[in-house]
Amino acid sequence: GAGSGSGATSGATSGATRLSQDKLMSTAAEKVAAATSLTPTFPVPKAGFEAGTGTIAVIAGGLSAPVHAEQAEVMKKAVTAAGWTVLGPYDGKFSPAVQGGYIDQAIQARANGVLLFAVDVNTIRAAVDRALGAKIVVACAMCTSGDQARAKGVLDVTPDFERQGEDLGWFIVQRSKGAAKVAITVEPAATGVVARTRGLEKVLDQCAGCSYNEIVIPAADSTLPGPPQWTAFLSAHPSGYTDAVAYYDGLTTPMTKTLRESGRTDVTVSSYDADPAVLSLMAKGSAQLGADVASPLDFASWSAVDLVLRSKAGAARWDTTNLPSVLLTGKNIAGFTPPLQPAGDWHKTFTTLWTSS
Amino acid sequence: MTLFADDAATEPPSTAPSVPLARPAPSRTLAQSRAFGSSLTFLAFLAIFAGYSVWLGDRFLDPGARLLNLHQNVPVLLIALAAMITLVAGKFDLSVSSTASLTAYLAIGLRTEQGLPFWAVLVACLAVGVAVGLVNGFLVEYLSINAFIATLGSGGVILGISSVYSGGGPLIPSGPRAVPGWFDALGSFASRPPAAVVWAIAAVACAALVRLLGAVVPSRWDRTRSLAARTVAVAAAAALVVVGLDVPSWSGGVSWLTFLLLVVATAMWVLLELTAFGRGLKASGANPEAARLAGIHTRRHVLGAFVLGGVLAALAGVILAATQGSVAPDLAGAFLLPAFAAAFLSTVVFSAGAFTVWGTVIGGVFVVWVGQGLIVGGLPNTWTDIVNGAVLLIAVSLSTVVRIARR
Amino acid sequence: MTLFADDAATEPPSTAPSVPLARPAPSRTLAQSRAFGSSLTFLAFLAIFAGYSVWLGDRFLDPGARLLNLHQNVPVLLIALAAMITLVAGKFDLSVSSTASLTAYLAIGLRTEQGLPFWAVLVACLAVGVAVGLVNGFLVEYLSINAFIATLGSGGVILGISSVYSGGGPLIPSGPRAVPGWFDALGSFASRPPAAVVWAIAAVACAALVRLLGAVVPSRWDRTRSLAARTVAVAAAAALVVVGLDVPSWSGGVSWLTFLLLVVATAMWVLLELTAFGRGLKASGANPEAARLAGIHTRRHVLGAFVLGGVLAALAGVILAATQGSVAPDLAGAFLLPAFAAAFLSTVVFSAGAFTVWGTVIGGVFVVWVGQGLIVGGLPNTWTDIVNGAVLLIAVSLSTVVRIARR
Amino acid sequence: MAGSAGLAPTLRIAGLGRSFGRVEVLRDIDLEIGPGEFVGLMGPNGAGKSTLIKVLDGVYPPSAGTIRLGAQQVPSLGASPLVGFIHQDLGLIDGLTVADNLRLGQSPLRLVGPVLNRPAERAAAARALAAVGLDLPVTGPVGDLSPGEKALVAIARAFARGARILFVDEATSTLPPPDAKRVVAALRAMANAGSTVVMVTHKLSEILGATGRVVLLLDGRIAADRSTTGLGRAELVRMLASHEKGAAGPAGDPRPGPADPAAGGPGRTLLRLDGAHGGRAGPVDLVVRAGEVVGLTGTPGSGLHDVGYLAHGSLRPSRGTRTLAAGVRTALVPPHRETQGGFPDLDVGVNLTVSALRRFRGAFGLLARRRERAEGQRLVTRLKVRPADVGTEFRLLSGGNKQKVIFGRALLREAGVHVLCEPTRGVDVAARAEIYALVRRLPDEHTGVLVVTSDAEDLLAVCDRLATVSDGTVSDFRPVDDLDETALEAVL
Ligand SMILES: Nc1ncnc2c1ncn2[C@@H]1O[C@H](COP(=O)(O)OP(=O)(O)OP(=O)(O)O)[C@@H](O)[C@H]1O
Ligand SMILES: Nc1ncnc2c1ncn2[C@@H]1O[C@H](COP(=O)(O)OP(=O)(O)OP(=O)(O)O)[C@@H](O)[C@H]1O
Ligand SMILES: [Mg+2]
Ligand SMILES: [Mg+2]
Predict the structure, then answer these.
(1) C188 lies in which domain range?
(2) Which of A345, B171, D23, D472 gives the lowest tally of CB atoms within 10 Å of its CB?
(3) CATH number of the D251-329+415-492 domain
(4) Looking at the complex, does the CB of residue B338 fall below 8 Å from at least one CB of chain A?
(5) Are A222 and B361 in contact (CB under 8 A)?
């Protein structure tokens, strides 16, 4: 696990070089400018192929999370558009045991592919191995499955989570003029969170005037009032912190709420996922919110479907592990219309590719 | 008392040496040791907090932060009270958290989606609580289904209704039909009743304490002397607390929600301890058959407990919506076990076996505080579960261990 | 039986008029209606499945898929059995799922991180189960803490230990110290015992059925006739099932895990129904005071139930690790409520009030199948909770409704 | 043990004492009981009889004193296979079958390994039942048995375990006379065969008829210990009464004079059952009028108590009608006090007032708890409940004291119709007289009483007219004046 205690303040670890103040600020400005561009370039597959027919099981991490429910439907729509049959969408209930169970059911039903949305395939290793062993294509949208799983054949369709953490890091450095003290919430059980945290800390390590603390908030505790770890952290540190990072937007709302209720105005919360509620607050100019990172969810879901179809048809695959993302701040939020997606009718692009050989 | 009007006449003189109501000495000691034994868990918690205060100082003894914990846990505690009232009736109600999740949706959705006036929304939410209670009570009392499985099933249905209503997604109020400002403000820790109200409550609490102490004062003291002694004692204790713990700064920290909780708990305490319904409920829980034969309508009482539990859970959901401002699926799901833990803690915090209102509230808050102290003290996060669990066990076992040792 | 050797001598003629106290027909009818009433829930489930079969055809009546459901739910069912055994003893054990989560970590971690030989890993996991059971039993029986709160607390501690052990993150086996291949294979639905074993089991089950039917055959039939009749009946029924439901294709679908579950359940059934320990346990659960006075060491029995529950939960965790191949925090946490639902279902599936082994297994599987049918049938996801809950309630209430109507 | 099958070892108890907290329940108990003795243990409610037996069983360790079995000093008798105990609540488990109950605590008969030999166990169970003259299907749950059958099953269990010394705590108090007689006769036979039997009872006839020696326990001390040979009923009563000041008057004569109903005899009809069916009773025609005490008796299984429930209203008639005069309440003393009576964990005060809470409504409809407690305390004192404290938890009371509290609860309700089922079950001689006096005083122009009992003494002592119940139907009523006990038995 990556978790250290909430008390552990990290300085520059593993020989990260610290930049001079000038260099730091110019790099930050540069990185933030690049990350906040609202028109990033999307990788687009070129070669067409005949999709044929087949069956895909769609399994979401947990349908109780709105994003998962929404993307499961998007995946279903994409699969149907390709003329394939959908099993599911299945509700993974955020439980590896349940998620693995549905993969086994897909094997039993002789599906051709399994589409996962934000599932950590490492926690369902055995079921994934069984699926791959049965020649079933496993694609995972919004996942960092790791080199080992990818080598075995798991197809990730995702922005670079570590890069997202870095982007947020540079934003915080810039915002604080190189003097940030950051409380970083982590959930060591979630690989995506771990990767984002890694990127974030990598940047903060280069900033001589910055420091940070990790607060471990297990997912199970994230819905408790406060959450308790955050409330306790605030009362243990009455002042000094300038920034906090919520590991997903589900935490942003309770965290800012607790800040407000303890009468704190000194901490700004940044986060990931571009939840509409958070964005609308940000658009209103809430002083408590820093930046948020938007990922191209719909596009990732369609791309995942595309990958499965391609694998089945034996067509060449394309690089889907580095989809773009956008850093949203108070400055560019007005120009942003969710979701983050390529310009033009990109759905059409895909459906055309699937019917041309 | 027609029956006993002629007692004096018919009673053989030897048995009527005008026995005073004072209890004989031996049972007195029994009662006292019982009172002490049953407050041991409470004392154990206080000892833990004293330890924290020495260790963490102001970082733990921060009135604002501790009252914020209380404020934030009002929905959990209301659900705990909902669970407690059915436990008093000898039944389980596992549907309380689902009911809260459902009414949380309705509280915001009926206004923003269906456009009902807000008073109608509140009425509808409480009506849902009543309906849930009626259904549960019907299943358990009239169809004789085991309460555990009945409420597990009905909880599933209720949760399902909330996900059908919401389409499985969250609900974020926006647009013209916003919830009223006071509702949003209600959820905020910063919105507080006038300090006078708080002080009035404190005064009432002190008066109650004076009265309760009546059981402790030596019975040979006359009425005036006893009253004076008690008043002085309570006033001194109150002064000590006020000055020592800097209460004026706390008193400003009682939010409307906390106030609401206190009002609800007081009402429930009155209901349970001072009304015939409460008495009948306890009897029905203790021995339903005997209660029925003693002329108590046990079914109606248990049904009443379920309805009350449903209403409290519904209230918790509404308040949850107020504190969150938006609603996500099964918002209150994670509250189920903490709520039951608080309810069961009440059987040892202030009593020796019975579920109590104040035990539930205080037990629930104490557990939160214990956890907060650990985190503030910098205990690595991975350890909190262990220490939390261990503290719970130790606090609970203390009272029984001492009881056993005394035998 | 020395006592009865001289019965004739010691018995006074006057006291042995052997006039039976009037026990007329009613009790016979009572027993019969009870047997029928207590299988009503079972029949209700069968009716639901019949409905599914008509509606969904082969998509529901797919032997492979249904047996896969069973295979996948082996850990849940083991946890349900763990919960059931303590319920028989009249106690709650809420720590079962935490224990399973812990041993899931240990099963993989002790091998890949600490490098223990795998047999030692298994021994350690079961030892953890024993230890957990001993602690729970001690808290509940020797410190007299309410089992609900005691196991809530100990469950927290156990979960905490697993998070300290794992650092709060998942554990993904890799590198040279991999778990043995057979362990990985054990979790797979594709690894199955020889078909002969399955058929042998089926034969034993039929034999048991023949024996059980003995209670139904008119008592005036002589032994041979009765035996013949029963054998023919069971053989006919078996043939019907085999042909009608295409059993040969099913029989190949019994995985090692399913087999293990059947073995464990059979052993538990023998323990509960056919050993002195089981009888003592039921007595302790039904009336601890009377059991103690009858000379049963209730404490040891209840302790034994907790230990057995702990071991079963530990086994569930190990198997969970095998099916998952890796471990995430509180892997088994979501199993707690379904497990208890299965255990409570057993009180209505095959009996009128008592917890039973086969009722737990079958109740648990049936609930899963009901849910699967809904998913297969394409019920929108938001509706599954409602229908699942409603089906549970209806199935359970049927038996009581009919019982009431019969009065 | 085949060789010594006949004789039980001698039991010697010296200086035995037991306290709960500061309450000394037993002190300085010295007893020596030889083989073949049949000892009756008597004493008022709360004297410590049950506690003595529980101490001997090892349920509570003694605070002082020694116990010797034969030559050997033992911590308690519970562990010895030679000693059997039947406690006041019989200790059977309702949910288990008769066979299982009979095998509880015995070394199991095994087939292979730990697996039990069920058929052999059933056979052994049937034999054990036959030894006490009982013929029941052993595979049915004990919960379905009548109290009489349960008592015999409990005794059969003790014998089957090979007990040579048997302690029986009020096993007969819940039994109708014919069953009680059978139980006592079975015990007598065991004593004749060389076993030792110690039986707690409040029934004088059992002491006089069956036992050879009576031990009187008072306030936890042995107040008298003598042989019953040559002891007459009057002398026994005097012996009991001489130690109980105050209760002497009524206790001296268990049959007070005939009723003295309110002037003008029975008044208006309060309750009427017309062809009512319910449970195993029916059709029942019954009238209870103001100012009278109506008695009902019957054999077990006759549906006797179901008639009581029908009259009380806790059992709704499935056919026929029940008419209650306007504004009349009913109150019930239920027949099975251990399960139907009290709220074990609530205190005596709450147990007393629970049926009469409407009387303690004060301001805003809230309970006037002070008044409630005072009233409860008054009743506790009046009924001589021990300990005389409304704050005591109900479960700590002795059996007879529980009965008094439940009786008190019915009184406090101020009902128009009192249905008293087995009102004197398990109460001592003095309390019995006290209860009779109270029942006699109940009927007036607004109040009638229905006594449903299997104890003939109750009927003779308090009833104006009585009837028997058999097969659920009520026979014709007869005035009680012209009956004595033998005539009554003829009626039954
Ligand atoms: N566990 C206990 N704690 C405190 N007091 C107790 C306990 N058990 C019994 N007592 C008290 O000891 C006294 C003797 O009770 P016991 O049951 O032995 O009476 P008894 O002679 O059997 O009376 P009865 O004829 O009514 O059955 C009673 O006053 C009872 O309240
Ligand atoms: N609910 C029942 N259904 C069928 N038989 C029963 C039931 N309850 C009791 N019995 C049988 O009736 C017989 C007598 O029971 P019991 O001694 O309680 O009768 P009773 O006291 O005369 O009647 P009651 O208490 O109903 O007025 C027993 O053999 C018992 O098995
Ligand atoms: Mg007694
Ligand atoms: Mg009866």
Answers:
(1) 29-406
(2) A345
(3) 3.40.50.300
(4) yes
(5) no
